[in-house]
Amino acid sequence: MQIRPLGTTGPQVSALGLGCMGMSGMYGPADRAESIATIHAALEAGINLLDTGDFYGMGHNELLISEALKGTKRDQAILSVKFGAQRDPAAGWIGFDGRPAAVKTSLAYSLQRLGVDYIDVYRPARLDPNVPIEETIGAIAEMVKAGFIRHIGLSEVGPETIRRAAAVHPIADLQIEYSLISRGIEEHILGTCRELGIGITAYGVLSRGLISGHWRKDAAGPADFRAHSPRFQGENVDKNLRLVDALQGIAEARGVTVAQIAIAWVAAQGDDIIPVVGARRRDRLSEALGALDVHLSRDDLDRIEQAVPKGAAAGERYAAAQMAHLDSEAGGH
């Protein structure tokens, strides 16, 4: 497994991360035993970056990871935790809390659920419009000084917020959606991060399965996040699946899968970009790991660009209400 620094100030992480969200119901039911087996398989393959959020299954995901890590050395896993999203008992999304007191309370509960005495990378899941980012990052910085957190990350914020956060404390990485069909960060965000020495942990590299080569229409049940995603609806999904068909030809010519091409493309955009794959099963994890052996030539990259040009995707990456909460989509430079 290749190991890379996460930004100039962050920890040493595997070239591929495991996103654990889907193990806690965001995409419909998940098999607990298979989820734990998948985390074990990832660790055995040399993946050390495990990404979670305290609001994934209302704590379920952190408890699952804690169970999976029993018997392993603490430093075998780099735990990246998002906090701050507020949810009601019916699992509805009801806002975001980035106040300093909320930061410390969320951290206390995450440490307890995960069964650890520090978290490697701690990050607000979104920008709280009612709290200056300096206050949120300042509170996390206090927890770094106290030894409860090793590094600070950001998620889904734009260039101005990134600069303001970095002025308070070094930022290891920005977690943000980046894939062949979600390339918004190339506009201003990626350049800002590179200027400041901030790494990128790219989630949604398969666009929630859409460009995995495994997605089939009408596969999402009502409990599946994708049932409400614009890219998976109506004519949009037909157009997007045509892009997948175009990728299929390139993948077949290389003797690899569509998913492997899509992951390899993200990895090829720079050593400072770590793709995070949301594998819930060992077979999907194994396929993702195979992408690390796919080295794309200039010709390959040109062919992929022709098959899936920038901006080719139909539909936004989130529903309108969620897009409105994304500082990364606010258009700041």
From TrEMBL:
Transmembrane segments: none
Keywords (A to Z) from UniProt: Oxidoreductase
Residue intervals of the NADP-dependent oxidoreductase domain: 16-307
Keyword Oxidoreductase carried by entry: yes
PROSITE patterns: PROKAR_LIPOPROTEIN
SUPFAM superfamilies (UniProt xref): NAD(P)-linked oxidoreductase
Any Pfam family matching the protein: Aldo_ket_red
GO CC terms in record: cytoplasm
Organism expressing this protein natively: Phyllobacterium myrsinacearum
MF annotations from Gene Ontology: oxidoreductase activity
Gene3D superfamilies for this protein: NADP-dependent oxidoreductase domain (3.20.20.100)
Record bears the keyword Oxidoreductase: yes
Domain of life: Bacteria
Name the record gives this protein: Aldo/keto reductase
